[in-house]
Design brief:
alpha+beta; two-stranded antiparallel sheet; 113 residues; 57% helix; two-stranded antiparallel ribbon
Length: 113
């Protein structure tokens, strides 16, 4: 049986369920936290632009969120301090990118309204 990753301290602002560390999630401009899957589903329903455009941004957001998870997993394997700093910076960049893409989805979908 796969053991569950521990819960975060957040609940999803859309579905109201606990967010776990093994789930993709993002921070909104309203300082709330949402599951990526909930955010995507709702954004596509409330889209103010064509689905293709929004889907392209959502897919990019998903890629960045997956990279954050990957960097966090790989960081534990790095022993060299200097290299660890590079990896931490790469992870921070993925967090910045996901924040920008989250804002883009918010702007083009009205998902938080």
């Amino acid at each position: 049986i796969m053991s569950r990753a521990p819960p975060t301290k957040w609940t999803c602002d859309i579905c109201k369920n606990t967010i776990y560390w093994d789930e993709l999630f993002t921070f909104t401009s309203k300082k709330t936290v949402v599951h990526y899957t909930c955010f995507r589903e709702k954004a596509l329903k409330t889209a103010k632009v064509d689905q293709d455009q929004l889907t392209a941004i959502l897919d990019s957001l998903e890629d960045e969120l997956k990279m954050i998870v990957v960097y966090k997993q790989r960081l534990g394997k790095i022993k060299d301090d200097e290299v660890k700093k590079y990896m931490e910076q790469a992870e921070k960049d993925a967090e910045k990118n996901s924040a920008m893409l989250t804002r883009a989805v918010e702007k083009l979908s009205g998902v938080l309204e």
